[in-house]
């Protein structure tokens, strides 16, 4: 059976979107099928696979489920939320495993209210109690990260030059460290000035990506908690820039582009 897909991206963080709002998928998505579809050599290829569904009784316009390239289902993806907001016409209420997120179309692209960050060690989650603003741990020169959960777990390291860090080597080590029982997204950030951050991200379950929306949110919150930047900041990732605000209401807003690349179909049984 042929199934339609939409290829989208936010700053090069790319997605295969399966729209099951009106026509259900032939069978439930599994981790193995998600990983096969996401594979860049033998599948369609993407950082995350997104499945859209009716909102049900979630009090939203639609629902989305998020699968990393390794097939694992996760709670949040900032760039995919903006992409789905674009597909839904710009202004949408999207039910996710991290709650209902609201997108708004504007001249800068799509903005999304990512909700409130969670900062307690057990909310990240971490394996044991510690200060999340300066964790007393380190990996090969990367020291004292900030831990932030923005629907998904992040560790943020501030360094003088984020491009000098071998993130392809240290990222997987930190992602799989037992300190992070749910694994973790690894953010390496350099504060340029009080309005500007440069960021590279090793994503849990996907590796190095061109951009990570939740990583930009977590990094902005970490820098704001440390008093390094203002409450609105531009985060420059390899794929482009996101504007992140953390309001007096404790809610994070992310604004940036979302793009549809092309549409196609695939044979469901080829990826079983
Ligand atoms: N690219 C995403 C984050 C996707 C999920 C992440 N890898 C995780 O495992 O939590 C974004 O734009 O936020």
TrEMBL record:
<dbReference type="InterPro" id="IPR001653">
    <property type="entry name" value="DAP_epimerase_DapF"/>
</dbReference>
<feature type="active site">
    <location>
        <position position="77"/>
    </location>
</feature>
<dbReference type="GO" id="GO:0008837">
    <property type="term" value="F:diaminopimelate epimerase activity"/>
</dbReference>
<feature type="binding site">
    <location>
        <begin position="213"/>
        <end position="214"/>
    </location>
    <ligand>
        <name>substrate</name>
    </ligand>
</feature>
<feature type="site" description="Could be important to modulate the pK values of the two catalytic cysteine residues">
    <location>
        <position position="154"/>
    </location>
</feature>
<feature type="binding site">
    <location>
        <position position="13"/>
    </location>
    <ligand>
        <name>substrate</name>
    </ligand>
</feature>
<keyword id="KW-0963">Cytoplasm</keyword>
<feature type="active site" description="Proton donor">
    <location>
        <position position="77"/>
    </location>
</feature>
<comment type="function">
    <text>Catalyzes the stereoinversion of LL-2,6-diaminopimelate (L,L-DAP) to meso-diaminopimelate (meso-DAP), a precursor of L-lysine and an essential component of the bacterial peptidoglycan.</text>
</comment>
<feature type="active site" description="Proton acceptor">
    <location>
        <position position="212"/>
    </location>
</feature>
<protein>
    <recommendedName>
        <fullName>Diaminopimelate epimerase</fullName>
        <ecNumber>5.1.1.7</ecNumber>
    </recommendedName>
</protein>
<feature type="binding site">
    <location>
        <position position="48"/>
    </location>
    <ligand>
        <name>substrate</name>
    </ligand>
</feature>
<comment type="subunit">
    <text>Homodimer.</text>
</comment>
<keyword id="KW-0028">Amino-acid biosynthesis</keyword>
<dbReference type="GO" id="GO:0009089">
    <property type="term" value="P:lysine biosynthetic process via diaminopimelate"/>
</dbReference>
<feature type="binding site">
    <location>
        <position position="68"/>
    </location>
    <ligand>
        <name>substrate</name>
    </ligand>
</feature>
<feature type="binding site">
    <location>
        <position position="152"/>
    </location>
    <ligand>
        <name>substrate</name>
    </ligand>
</feature>
<comment type="similarity">
    <text>Belongs to the diaminopimelate epimerase family.</text>
</comment>
<feature type="binding site">
    <location>
        <begin position="78"/>
        <end position="79"/>
    </location>
    <ligand>
        <name>substrate</name>
    </ligand>
</feature>
<feature type="binding site">
    <location>
        <begin position="203"/>
        <end position="204"/>
    </location>
    <ligand>
        <name>substrate</name>
    </ligand>
</feature>
<keyword id="KW-0457">Lysine biosynthesis</keyword>
<keyword id="KW-0413">Isomerase</keyword>
<feature type="site" description="Could be important to modulate the pK values of the two catalytic cysteine residues">
    <location>
        <position position="203"/>
    </location>
</feature>
<dbReference type="InterPro" id="IPR018510">
    <property type="entry name" value="DAP_epimerase_AS"/>
</dbReference>
<comment type="pathway">
    <text>Amino-acid biosynthesis; L-lysine biosynthesis via DAP pathway; DL-2,6-diaminopimelate from LL-2,6-diaminopimelate: step 1/1.</text>
</comment>
<dbReference type="GO" id="GO:0005829">
    <property type="term" value="C:cytosol"/>
</dbReference>
<dbReference type="Pfam" id="PF01678">
    <property type="entry name" value="DAP_epimerase"/>
</dbReference>
<feature type="binding site">
    <location>
        <position position="185"/>
    </location>
    <ligand>
        <name>substrate</name>
    </ligand>
</feature>
């Amino acid at each position: 059976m042929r199934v339609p897909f939409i290829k989208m991206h936010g700053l090069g963080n790319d997605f295969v979107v399966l729209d099951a709002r009106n026509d259900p998928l032939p069978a439930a998505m599994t981790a193995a099928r998600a990983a096969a579809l996401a594979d860049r050599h033998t599948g369609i290829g993407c950082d995350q696979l997104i499945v859209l569904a009716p909102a049900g009784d979630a009090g939203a316009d639609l629902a989305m489920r998020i699968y990393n390239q390794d097939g694992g289902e996760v709670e949040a993806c900032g760039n995919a939320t903006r992409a789905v907001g674009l597909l839904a016409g710009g202004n949408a209420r999207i039910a996710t495993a991290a709650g209902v997120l609201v997108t708004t179309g504007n001249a800068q692209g799509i903005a999304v209210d990512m909700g409130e960050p969670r900062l307690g060690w057990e909310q990240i989650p971490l394996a044991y109690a510690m200060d999340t603003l300066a964790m007393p741990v380190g990996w090969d020169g990367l020291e004292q990260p900030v831990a932030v959960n923005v629907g998904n777990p992040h560790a943020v390291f501030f360094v003088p030059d984020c491009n000098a860090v071998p993130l392809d080597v240290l990222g997987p080590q930190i992602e799989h460290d037992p300190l992070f029982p749910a694994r973790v997204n690894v953010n390496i950030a350099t504060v340029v000035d009080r309005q500007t951050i440069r960021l590279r991200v090793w994503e849990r379950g996907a590796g190095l990506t061109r951009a990570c929306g939740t990583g930009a949110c977590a990094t902005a919150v970490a820098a704001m908690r440390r008093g390094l930047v203002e409450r609105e900041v531009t985060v420059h990732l390899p794929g482009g820039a996101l504007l992140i605000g953390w309001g007096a209401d404790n809610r994070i807003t992310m604004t940036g582009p979302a793009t549809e690349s092309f549409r196609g179909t695939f044979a469901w049984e080829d990826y079983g």
